[in-house]
Amino acid sequence: MQALYSWQLTQNHPKDILASFREDEEHANADAEYFREMLMGVTAKSAALDALLEPVIGRPVEQLDPIEHALLWVGVWELSERLEVPYRVTINEAVGLARKYGAEQSHRFINGVLDTLARQLRGAERAEPRRRTTG
Questions:
Q1: What are phi and psi of 105, to 5 degrees?
Q2: DSSP label of 131
Q3: Is the dihedral of CA 125, 34, 96, 120 positive or negative?
Q4: How far apart are CA 60 and CA 114, in angstroms?
């Protein structure tokens, strides 16, 4: 999310942003390959991701807060490109980040948008019954 936020504000090349995040000790524990795939994938497909978002958000994507936009990009990218990541995980992670970094009610907005997109992009997965864990 932070890398995409930076990309929106600076318009630096994604490879430069990737390099700066790799040098940052705070991000040393992140999955480097997944981070690279996400950053490069989202920036390469941002227009297509925005086209998926715009009908759902009820306003032009240009009016989105940059943090919300970054979270939604990650969410819609995972929902459409990373089918091995359960849709519930994608939504929960985005909502958690929105609670931490977003505006007061942005977590509700993020949840609603990604839930709607999950219905569109992951209909079969959503139709599966929830698996219960036994403890």
A1: -110, 10
A2: P
A3: negative
A4: 16
DSSP 52-66: HHHHHHSS-GGGS-H
The tens place of each residue's pLDDT in the chain, 135 residues long, gives 788 777 777 887 888 888 777 776 666 566 778 888 988 999 999 999 999 999 999 899 999 999 999 999 999 999 999 999 999 999 999 999 999 988 888 999 999 999 999 999 988 776 676 655 555
The two structure tokens encoding residue 131: 């698996």
Domain 2-125 top-level CATH class: mainly alpha
DSSP 13: -
Structural domain boundaries in the chain = 2-125
Q: Is 85 left (phi over 0), alpha (psi -120 to 50) or beta?
A: beta
Residue type at 108?
Answer: R
3-state secondary structure of 98: helix
From the list 109, 87, 85, the residue with the least C-alpha distance to 97 is: 109
Phi, psi dihedral angles at 28 (to 5 degrees)? -65, -30
